[in-house]
Amino acid sequence: MFLGRAFTQSCYSKSVRLSNRLSFSSCARRAAASATALKPAPTPETEEELPPSPQHVLTEKDHQRLRFQRNIGVSAHIDSGKTTLTERILYYTGRISQIHEAPVVTLRLARRTDSLSQRWRPHRRVRGRDAVGAKMDSMDLEREKGITIQSAATFCDWETREVATGNKQKYAINIIDTPGHVDFTIEVERALRVLDGAILVLCAVAGVQSQTTTVDRQMRRYGVPRISFINKMDRPGANPWRIINQIRSKLRIPAAAVQVPIGIEDEFKGVVDLVHWRSIYNEGQKGNEVVISQEVPESVMELAKAKRNELIEQLAEVDEEIGELFLNDELPSNDQIATAIRRSTIALKFSPVFLGSAIKNTAVQPMLDGVCAYLPNPAESEVLAHDTSLPSSAPQIQLSPAADAPLVGLAFKLEEGRFGQLTYMRVYQGTLKKGNQIFNARTGKKVKVPRLVRMHSNEMEDIESIGPGEICAIFGVECSSGDTFTDGSTSFSMTNMYVPEPVISLSIKPKGIETPNFSRALNRFQKEDPTFKVHIDHESKETIISGMGELHLEIYVERMRREYNTDCVTGKPRVAFRETITQRADFAYTHKKQTGGAGQYAKVVGYIEPMEPDPETGKDVAFESVVMGGNIPTNFIPAIEKGFYEALEKGALSGNVISGCRFVLKDGAFHAVDSSELAFRLATIGAFREAFKMAKGVILEPIMNVEVVAPVEFQSQVIGGLNTRRGTIVDSEVRDDEFTAAAEVALNDMFGYSNQLRGSTQGKGEFSMEYKHHMPVLPNLQKDLEEAYRKTLAVKK
Ligand SMILES: Nc1nc2c(ncn2[C@@H]2O[C@H](COP(=O)(O)OP(=O)(O)OP(=O)(O)O)[C@@H](O)[C@H]2O)c(=O)[nH]1
Known about the structure:
Layout: H1 2-18, H2 26-38, H3 60-67, E1 69-76, H4 82-92, E2 107-109, E3 120-122, H5 140-145, E4 152-161, E5 168-177, H6 185-194, E6 197-203, H7 210-221, E7 226-231, H8 240-250, E8 255-257, E9 259-262, E10 270-273, E11 278-283, E12 289-293, H9 298-318, H10 320-327, H11 334-346, E13 351-355, H12 364-374, E14 384-387, E15 397-398, E16 408-417, E17 420-429, E18 432-433, E19 437-440, E20 446-448, E21 452-456, E22 459-462, E23 465-466, E24 471-475, E25 484-486, E26 492-493, E27 504-510, H13 516-528, E28 533-537, E29 542-547, H14 550-564, E30 568-570, E31 574-575, E32 578-581, E33 585-593, E34 600-610, E35 621-625, H15 637-648, E36 661-669, H16 677-694, E37 697-711, H17 715-724, E38 728-735, E39 738-746, H18 753-760, E40 766-776, H19 779-796
Parallel strand pairs: 1-5, 1-6, 6-7, 7-13, 8-13, 35-36
Antiparallel strand pairs: 2-3, 4-5, 9-10, 10-11, 11-12, 14-15, 14-26, 16-17, 16-25, 17-24, 18-23, 19-20, 19-25, 21-22, 21-24, 27-29, 27-30, 27-31, 28-29, 32-37, 33-34, 34-36, 37-39, 37-40, 38-39
Bound molecules: guanosine-5'-triphosphate.
């Protein structure tokens, strides 16, 4: 008890400090989790530090409903078998009556030398073995490319049987299948934002891969508890113990197996459940029949005993109750172990590890039991929202998943469906009913909900109402991804999600005459996907699209052709450089023009300074006005803000977007006749440009995490190749006859890497890369980029 309370308090005091920035702070969620699990009694001296109390107390009926509700995501490195696993889950839960094989993907290095698509990518059209493709990959493009692009939401019911009593219990599970490809990382962010728990899928051979660490980071950012599922136990070289060690060392989360395999590789036939000490096998053609035996086979007895001890030891490290028993040399009961796993998983202190083979239909059902047993229900996740009627410094409000509370829902994904815009929404509190009027907290607009559905991949089921803690989709509601909806009786707004910076851009124009479909499509895609950005280069008059990778942009160009009938020509992909400032610079700038007729007069005074990105949203530019006393009438402030954002569009060094900058307006002056919005906008642009010169501007470039896997005999060539590209090797590991090298390399230095790797490894090496952050370029590159930009400006003159 003591540990639980101390933990809750220390976490909460931190969460109060951060509450304005981190609405989904893991700490807050942990605090809530341990509060739920350990129920610490509040004490008078801690009153100030207690979490905000939920607005509505849950009734017994709410608890009954929520207890058996799970919202989970399935996340992993590309190709770990997420889609195959989700397909099995849907089949075993009765959502689908047949299993369509996930597409068989053959990955080859792209053969394009002029491009940045050095990552492994599908090189031919792929289909499921039965030519239908997995249910969850519903977009045609997904089936063709054999990868998951958009996350598909679905729900299913799962019946578990209590071990002690044999009683059956039905759970309602919403599942979001998320793409593994780094270019679609925003889909993973979105899914995690609205989920209460996740299954982290790992390959039993490849283990923790680059994208695994990315999804791990995302799960931490949103405080999502996870169980781990080591898939592909049937593969030659499968070694779950090595993977568990990697989870501990690379992801730095205490983890232990809750199962041991019975047989391995092509002999893999079931698992020993270490918690309840029994064996579980699958029988029947598709493994639908789960056969439970109280006997543990002799062949794995010693291993099972050792691994159960290891599980208890790991739990003793993170759970007070087991820790105490351990110290007193007492053995915990099965129930005590199960409760401790649940408690520490929800508190983000532990990840129980399940084993299986989705493709061989083995041990998927026990993992589903684990979802119900160890992942939190919606009442166990703390969710905070801002009350926009209060100052932004006011503490956030804790939402409560009570059915009769005022409605608060978050639109987390938009999709252009067959019947118009489909908006996926998670209802956090209150009940959403078909025909209800709902309010968009951002725009203040009121809309009616004409149709409410539950999604099952690309099929849907009409429903009349949906309760808190659930996920649904609504039709005909215009909004942007990340908007909060209420019933109008509250001013709650949930903060937005983390949006990474684009790393690649290219120019695009329609072939032939431009039709309205071109801009319609670009608008649509920007609304759907905040990592897809469009801007017009005012000098070249070109439309530039930017995104998270070449494949990301390619998909939109392809969607433009398929969905909007617009064939496009694109320019060469370019690295998305940025500019930033490294020190504060003050400004006092007067814009004055007197050319007969009405003059222009505006003066702005203030400073610009470097700004770190917000950890929750990634936003790293901000405008602040602290003008007092009416030296600038308030109606001109928006024009000044507009001028600042306009000035950010093109840096003076290389013509790239400026980031990492706060603009603080302190003072100014106006003229009763000659001041106008235009004059203040121009004064701001002038002021910014002057200040920028004194703020020691630098050019930034995207740095990528690159992971290369190749046969061990090519290790020195691969390391040498990365070194010549100025890569910093951060990790390398040799496993059997294969090695993995992880490096940080500037994206600009990655051109042509696919060819180099192929050449130096006889075509046997593979690599993936993902965005890490932007960093200042080396001085000589900065000089070259500045020089090149000066030349283009001179030509234009
Ligand atoms: N040997 C083996 N192969 C599997 C298993 N599960 C999936 N696969 C294969 O692994 C490949 C990738 O499976 P998917 O389910 O598409 O993987 P994914 O993680 O959803 O892939 P993305 O959506 O592109 O990230 C396919 O060829 C599957 O047949 C398994 O348990 N054992």
